[in-house]
Amino acid sequence: MIVENVLAAFSEILTIKTLALMMVGVAGGLMAGAIPGFTIAMAVVLTLPFTFGMPPSQGLATMVAVLVGGLSGGLMAGILTGIPGTPSSVATTFDGFPMARKGRPGLALGLGVWSSFFGGMISAVLLVTLAPQLARIGLEFQPWDYFMLVMFALTITASLAGRNLVKGLIAGAIGLLVRTVGEDEAIGMARFNFGSDSLLQGFDFIAVLIGLFAFSQLLTDVRDREAARKSLSDRGSIQARIEHRLAIREIAKRWVVVIRSSIIGVFTGILPGAGGSVANILAYDQAKKASSEPEKFGTGKPEGIIAPESSNNAVEGGALIVLMALGIPGDVTTAVMLGALLIHDVVPSPTFIRDEPVLAYSIFIAFFIANFMMIFMQSFMLRIFVLVTRIRMYMLACVILGFCGIGVFALNNVEFDLWTLLWFGILGFIMRQFGFPLAPMILGVVLGNIAELNLSRAMAITTDLTPFFTRPWSLFFLLVALFSAAFPVFQAHRGRKVWTLFYLPSACFAVSIPLFLMGGVPRPVIGVLVVLFGAHLLWKRWKSGWKLDPRESEAHTLSEG
Amino acid sequence: MGRLNRDTYVAVFLLVVCGVLFWASFDIRQPDYGTLMPSTWPRIVLAVLSLLSLIYLLQSLRVKPEEDEKPTEAPREPGIGGWFAYWRNPILCFVMFLLYLVALPVLGMLIGSMTFVFVLMGLLGGWSPRRLLVHAVVTVCTVGAMWALFTFGLGVMLPTGMIFNPFG
């Protein structure tokens, strides 16, 4: 059965049209990732209108290609100009740019490209193996558990997305509220339409996403008049030829860094809200700590390029694991992927891999193939990148704004969607200026219906609210949501206040309770291990006389910088 | 306007919006069937949003301006002129997009989008003859290609407008 499905998926992907679209997708992603100010999420969002007329597997393969291209594109700008193309490649510039300035741009690019490839491949293997297993666990989820899972996804995204947790949570709540406009999902009653027929249909959420993310980002990019008229090529030398063989040899010598960073990337991706921007810094930090020459980091050390690049490409594998197994997007880009599935009437859930095996395997295969395409396209796109960097930012912004208009109209052939684009573009821009993170809002918009539907289902089964606190999975997500909400406060006071010494042990003890409640053998065993870990932390802190370590707060500040 | 005031105003605005929407939630029809009323979920979200806005308001009142983030960019010129100069480009983009939407039924998608992109490029980049030529070439090539791709490649019926289709 699996073989049949895999073969069917191969026949869907290995068509000339799909492969050609994927090539274009990888090329577009590489370009979008390479241009500072143009995020990967924006590239994926802007691909959505094109995929509307395609079969689901073809459309998703194209989006996966854009995603993989975008993840690798950031390194080109980061290494050659010192300006990271995307937040996911910030750490790459720490050693990539110095290496390029020392006269080795080809090696720096080679290390970045091949690390991205290996990171992508490791995460693809983990995606194929872990997603079906996680989906099996997901089948145990009842509406109460799902509702709490959505709340956890929103809380952790809000806590990781910005400096101010309250602003993040407000953004998430606004997202949920936006989704309530129009007919309600369960009964079909009009809500907040104020007598307007257009509002009765609700806001098309793709138009909302494009407005919030792409439109508002473009306006932010052109805000500074002088910067808008500049091009990237004003800022450094961008002549280079990728040294593939030497790069592979250097990476082979440091395979431990690749594997460790890829695993960091995958697990960061699994965590809702924490994307490539977190993973690349974490992996860089770990590589530096594990190195015998940490003082040489920042001067053009190969590990400083290998670690962030393999981790940021591995992130999307992790985010796709959660999306495909549980139907919950791990970050903004997978939230857009969820949107792509929804416009093709495919609703991701734990039964997704079982119900739509061909589509699921098509995504897996596309992820593999896109990584190979990325390697092939990088050398070619480097030349195009040189041309693109001569274009002024305002020109790119104007053309993409025009494209937003055409693309959003093409989704439903409804003019109201263009107005939605404009209003949410303005809202997104204002929210950015006021310091509200947009990621929780986007997740709120995407997950609003899922939360309401599951709440409705739970209420239909019983009006008793206790299952939200007594069902093991629901309790698990509730506890993790509470601790993740407290995480920014913990980070801010870590190493300075005594109570922070108890944060991690108490999180371990609390989380072990639902694990024990789940029954069976493996989960209580995990629960025991978690309790032991928490006890070990407490013992260590007791042994050191409850002493605060100011280095912890310094490390936190450094990793933020 | 200081950051303290700005956050306070935003928090108050959010509370007002919550109040208005809470009021509007009483207009939602309540059917005799179903266990979760259509107004319940929006009210839960509004209650949470109100609570968060209240916390945000209290936060904004507690934080002194000097404790807040340092500005990352150069301060703008005082007065309404300075404000407009600072936000000129985003305002132009909004206004132009608004005009584009208003003119869309008349101009259609192809001419409307080309006009929008070309004029906006001029407003943001300048009107020198060389730039005008570059803008015109970029506009025709990119918007034309996108329009052709959607119309012929993806079979999407984009609005033709009254110029190409006066009786449509």
Task: Please give the share of residues in helix of chain A.
Answer: over 70%
Calculate the terminal CA-CA distance of chain B, rounded to whole Å.
50 Å
Low-confidence stretches of chain B: none
Give, in order, the helices and strands of chain B: HHHHH
Q: What would the average pLDDT of chain B be, to the nearest integer?
A: 86
Identify the biggest protein-protein contact and residues per side: A-B, 62 and 66 residues
What's the domain count of chain A? Answer: 2
Helix content of chain B: over 70%
Instruction: Tell me the number of strands of chain B.
Output: 0
Computed over alpha carbons, the radius of gyration of chain A is 23 Å
Structural class of chain A: mainly alpha
Tally of domains of chain B: 2
**Sequence of secondary-structure elements of chain A:** HHHHHHHHHHHHHHHHHHHHHHHHHH
- How is the quaternary structure best described? heterodimer
3D shape of chain B? flat
Question: What is the C-alpha radius of gyration of chain B, as a whole number of Å?
Answer: 24 Å
What's the tally of helices of chain B? 5
How far apart are the first and last residues' alpha carbons of chain A, in Å? Answer: 50 Å
Number of strands of chain A: 0
Strand content of chain A: under 5%
